[in-house]
Amino acid sequence: MEYLEHLTWLLFLKFIDEPDPASSSSQRRSHRNSKLLIDGKYRWSAWTEKALGRKAADGVRRGSPMWNDDQLMSYLRNDLLPYLASLAGSPEHQVVAGIFNGRTVVLCASPQNLREVLSIIDGIHFENEDDIHTVSSVYEELLRKLGRENKLAGEFYTPRAIARFMVDVIEPRIGETVYDPACGTCGLLVEALEYMRKAARTPKDERRLQQQPTFFGNEKKPVPALLGLVHMLLRGATVPQIRRCNTLEQDSRTPSALFDVVLSNPPFGGTENIRVQQNFQLKANATELLFLEHIMNKLKRSGHARCALVVPEGTLFRGGAFARARQELLNNYDLFMVVSLPPGAFAPYSNVKTSLLFFERGGPTREVLYQRIEARPGQKGFNKNTPLSDEHFELARATWNGWASYRRGAHPRPAATGWCWIESYREIEARGFDLSSRKPEDRSQDEIPNVADLTARLLASTSDLHQLIQRLHKKLSARVGL
């Protein structure tokens, strides 16, 4: 993870040092706002000349001689990085400063290895289609490996098969804004970008996609924010609005900006303090619930605003504030599909059972399509070695296409099967707005639920009990003066 972080900010510095896009006829060169240029001696081309001992085009060396190892490392630690962290003024400079301030930037390579990496990166030309395709492909693979092999990084990475299915259902269109309030390494935003790029038919479409602010993301932690920003830049997003901040510290009741599309896999299982909870109508400390309220409030009031969201299974059946949030969702939004993902969908870094919620502005909900993603015959389950793939979503895609046609009045109502069924608002209301992914006939039988559902409910109940005991302890401690 440290080496990937190191590589990322070096790529970023090379990327923003490319010549002004206006000086090139290449469309790819329009990927960057010229205000991002770094001043004078801090530009990549200036300091790497001394680090690598480059000669000018005429073969004559000018200026200072090549730095030795101590000079190179001293310049990075004591000059370049503090300068980058201190940038201020324009929004573009604040983006750069946000990457480098407030933390210790990793310098994990030895001087010898660092020079070798600098030399390789210096040979990349971001105006060259072949170069940028190669770099972005390698970078994507590094992020994928980081998500699969590093449990600490898993929370920032959504498996590609899940991300693609979410985007395919939501269908973001050119001209719409796309938002992820917990964007991690921007996997969902990149999938949206690739989907929208396929729909570009004219140069005007491409310019709208590249030059207009389209993709917006917040990320609390600095390293994934950096990884995500460069991920978007390498994929050709021109002005990605990736902010390093805690989304939940914003007042959810009076959102400042609204969006056409929200795609998100926010963190769950965490808690927020009382100060943060005051930003929400529903008083709860569970991050998954706070993100749900935030997202509902960030959808545009007009048009076809819609969302695809990953939630832990407990969000579908827990009581209290969770039940009130589900009632709000069903009454004021159209929850048109719930997809239950199998255990191991996010392996190896999480075995929490999860589901996908798909909803849009313009409620109330009338009917909900339920689907289950299951292993193929002969496959025991999902883990690091046998992850979810696009093939596992083939039936779900086909069923969704039929359901979407039915909702438009162009197709008969899909028939229930072993993996999908439809429930009405009244059926869900009758059981206290429980959205659990269990077929009605399964609920009518007095049977023990499957192991994954049972453990999910036990974990949720244990969490509720733990929070209750904590509150009781604080009150008793204050009463006796502990």
From TrEMBL:
Keywords: Methyltransferase, Restriction system, S-adenosyl-L-methionine, Transferase
Keyword Transferase in record: yes
Catalysed reactions, semicolon-separated: a 2'-deoxyadenosine in DNA + S-adenosyl-L-methionine = an N(6)-methyl-2'-deoxyadenosine in DNA + S-adenosyl-L-homocysteine + H(+)
Tree of life domain: Bacteria
DNA methylase adenine-specific domain location: 132-441
Enzyme Commission identifier(s): 2.1.1.72
Keyword flag Transferase: yes
InterPro entries in alphabetical order: DNA_Adenine_Mtase (IPR051537), DNA_methylase_A-5 (IPR003356), DNA_methylase_N6_adenine_CS (IPR002052), SAM-dependent_MTases_sf (IPR029063), T1MK-like_N_sf (IPR038333)
PANTHER family given in the database record: SLR6095 PROTEIN, TYPE I RESTRICTION ENZYME ECOKI METHYLASE SUBUNIT
UniProt record similarity statement: Belongs to the N(4)/N(6)-methyltransferase family.
Name of the protein: site-specific DNA-methyltransferase (adenine-specific)
Gene source species: Archangium gephyra
Record lineage: Bacteria, Pseudomonadati, Myxococcota, Myxococcia, Myxococcales
